[in-house]
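G., the chain you wanted modeled:
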Amino acid sequence: MSRPYNFSAGPAMLPEPVLQRAQEEMLDWHGSGMCVAEMSHRGKEFMAIAEQAEQDLRDLLAIPDGYRVLFLQGGASLQFAMVPMNLLRGRNRADYLNTGSWSKKAISEARKFCDVNLAASTEDGNFTRAPAQTELSLSADAAYLHYTPNETIQGVEFPYIPESSAPLVADMSSTLLSRPLDVARFGLIYAGAQKNIGPAGLALVILREELIGEAPDGVPAMLDYKTHADAGSMYNTPPTYSWYLAGLVFQWLKDLGGLEAMGRINQRKAEKLYAAIDGSGFYANPVEPAARSWMNVPFTLANPELDAEFLAGAKDAGFLTLKGHRSVGGMRASIYNAMPEEGVDALIAFMAEFERTKG
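Predicted structure as C-alpha cells:
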C-alpha cells in the first residue's frame, strides 16, 4: 500500500484521489493563478466552486425542492445549540433520544433552551442498542424530535428512521453520504464534515424552508439559519478550503457511482469485519447485531493486557489510530467512505495473525 490505513474516527482519512487532485490544484486552480485558500469567497472563482459543490450534494442525496443547504462553521457541536434556538418556534419542549455520547451532548445543550423530554434512553444498557419505535414516548407538544443515527464512540446505529409528527432532526455527522437517504423524512439534517464529507472546519445543514425564519428576538445573527440561508452561506467568510475539498469528495462519490454504490461497499466492509470478530474467540463486539454501526466498529481483545501490543503491532503494519475511545476502551476501527475495502481486508488479516500468535 502507498499510505498507511487510517482508522481514525475523525478527523478521518480522505479519499486518495481527492487529495491528489487538491495537490494538483494547490498552486493554481484552473488557471486562476490562485490557490483556493487564497480566493475571495465572493469572487467568481470561489462562487463557481461553491455552486458546483451544492449541486453535486443535491444530486447525490436527491434533495427535494423546498430544502435549503447551508455550509457553516462550528461543526456539529454548534448545531446542538442552533437547533433549539431556531426550531422551538414558540414552544418549550423538544423530544430527544439518548443513545450515546453525542446524543448526550446534544441533550445537555438543548436543556439550556427548553424542557427536554427523553423519549427513549439506552444508557442503562451501556448504549449497546438502539431503541425500537414502539419504545419511544413522544410528547404531543414537542417542537421536534432529535436523534443521532450513528454514535461514533459506542458504535451503535439506528436500523430505521424514527416516526414523529414533529419535525425530525438528525445529527448525521458520521453517516451522511455513506448510503442513500430519504431526505424528505427529515425536517433538519446536520453533519460535521470530518468523517465522510471533508476536512474539519465545515458543517452541513439541510433543512426545510418552512423551518427557517422563526428564531426568537435576541438570537445572534450568526446563530440564525435565516441569516445564512438569505446570504447563500456567505454572510461571513465561510471555511472556503474545507468547502472546496468537500466538493471534490462529492465529485469522487458521483464518479464512484453515487450513494447506492457507496452503500454497497460500506455494507460489505462492515459485514466482513463483524464476521471476523464474531468468528473469533479472541475478539468481541458489545453491540446488539441489529444496531451495529457500518461506520464505527469497536472491539475488545479477550486479554486487555495485550491491547498495547496489538496497537503497536498494528501501527508497525500500517494501521493507524485503532485505539478505542477512553470511555469505552479496547479498539475502534472507523471505516468511513474513504477507507478502501482492501484496508478492511488487510486489517482482518492482521487481526487473524495476531490472534494466531497471541491467542
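DSSP finds nine helices and 14 strands in the chain.

Shout if anything looks off.
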